[in-house]
Amino acid sequence: MTEKKKGRKILVYNLLFLVVGGAIVAFLLNAPKETTHRMPRDDNHLRFYQMDKKAAEKFCGECHNPTGQAGALPKDHPSKFRCLLCHKKIS
Ligand code: HEC
Ligand code: HEC
Question: Which of 3, 4, 67, 68 is deepest in the core (most CB within 10 A)?
Fold first, then answer.
């Protein structure tokens, strides 16, 4: 390989690095705001506000199920483990 070709290869790698790095930064800066609904602070949920998250989550399914008071979760609902990691308490 000639010196000139080598130099061009290094330039290409550097440009690639800049483009990919820039794309990643742009992606992260663009991340949407947190939109997941928080756990309501109402009579149904108030007791969970004093509880440890893991302990509280054992009860969510009592109402949040197809035949429960709150009904089924949306069809396209993501992973159902650890409700409170996504549905935060209203602070
Ligand atoms: C006693 C029954 C009951 C239990 C237990 C319960 N929920 Fe609910 N939840 C409801 C009902 C009824 C609604 C719909 C009416 C409302 O918004 O309060 C609801 C609504 C919600 C919503 C939607 C709020 C919105 O803005 O649309 C979230 C999120 C939620 N609950 C999370 C939880 C989590 C997390 C737990 C467990 C820690 C839990 N719930 C336990 C009855 C319950
Ligand atoms: C991986 C994150 C995640 C976990 C874990 C999770 N959810 Fe959700 N949940 C979402 C998203 C995202 C939506 C749809 C956006 C929204 O409405 O908040 C949603 C929607 C809901 C809704 C409907 C809210 C509405 O107003 O339409 C309820 C009720 C709900 N989740 C309850 C629960 C319960 C109960 C658990 C635990 C069994 C749970 N979620 C676990 C992310 C999560």
Answer: 68
Which residue is closest in CA terms to ligand 2's atom 24?
37
Domain ranges of the chain: 1-31, 46-86
CA of 44 to the centre of ligand 2 (A): 16
What is the per-residue pLDDT across 8-51, written as a single tens digit (0 to 9) for each? 999 999 999 999 999 999 999 988 787 899 999 999 999 999 99
Ligand 1 pocket, residue 86 CB under 6 Å? no
pTM of the model: 0.81
CA of 49 to the centre of ligand 1 (A): 12
d(CA 71, CA 11): 59
